[in-house]
Give the backbone structure.
Amino acid sequence: MSTGAFTSYIDVAQIALYVFWVFFALLIFYLRREDKREGYPLESDRSDRVTVQGFPSLPDPKTFHLHHGGTVTAPRTESDTRTIHAEPASYFPGAPLMPTGNPMTDAVGPASYAQRANTPDLTAEGAVKIVPLRTAGDFYLEPRDPDPRGCPVVAADGQTAGTVVDAWVDRAEVLIRYLEVEVSGPEGQRRVMLPMTCVRMGGKRGARKVRVNAITAAQFADVPSLANPEQITLLEEDRICAYYAGGNLYATPQRQEPVL
């Protein structure tokens, strides 16, 4: 075999395999950079001089044009400046945080939430996406399905927290997102939102009950309220859902203890 006659032992299949390996490696590199547009660099409790981002480094900022106007740049340079109402359980780096106040309202642990836009979610046509049935136009509840309106809400402690007065529908997905519950609080009657994913309906017609295992009856008084009684913003959605999520761990002292 003469010098440079490499074609006798390299074929098209082998070249295609090498090309695929290179392409796949570049694809992994690209995807690993792109998935760092949110949440990076991580905040470290070791030192302010430590940049926790791993390999590869952060991608260059990219501006995204939103469907309903405005832009968003990622990665974002601003950081969350909210006070963390918790302290490390021990002195080693990465120790779990223990709440120092009311974790369900202090956004700690499962009750934490992102600082989303304080504007309502919109449909593709630009209309408010999640609205109460009383303003939803042609939307209605299927008569053959159980109607939660008028049903008492029974909380995790077995006490009645309030009464369902309306259902909020998602006009894009065509389903119920929240129940609107009238409860009694220190300042009198108020209405709070209850995510439909936290609801279990039971009982026969005429004696139906809406059961919620996430929080107790007294804790309904502290559910974050809405600025506008006819619409809910993205930030309000996160705050409300986080409150109920936090109740799964913090509603009672027993929930924070080991199962066994």
Notes: Residues 75 and 203 are 50 Å apart (CA to CA). The longest helix spans residues 12-34. The longest strand covers residues 160-170. Residues 120-256 form a domain with the Photosynthetic Reaction Center; Chain H, domain 2 fold (CATH 3.90.50.10).
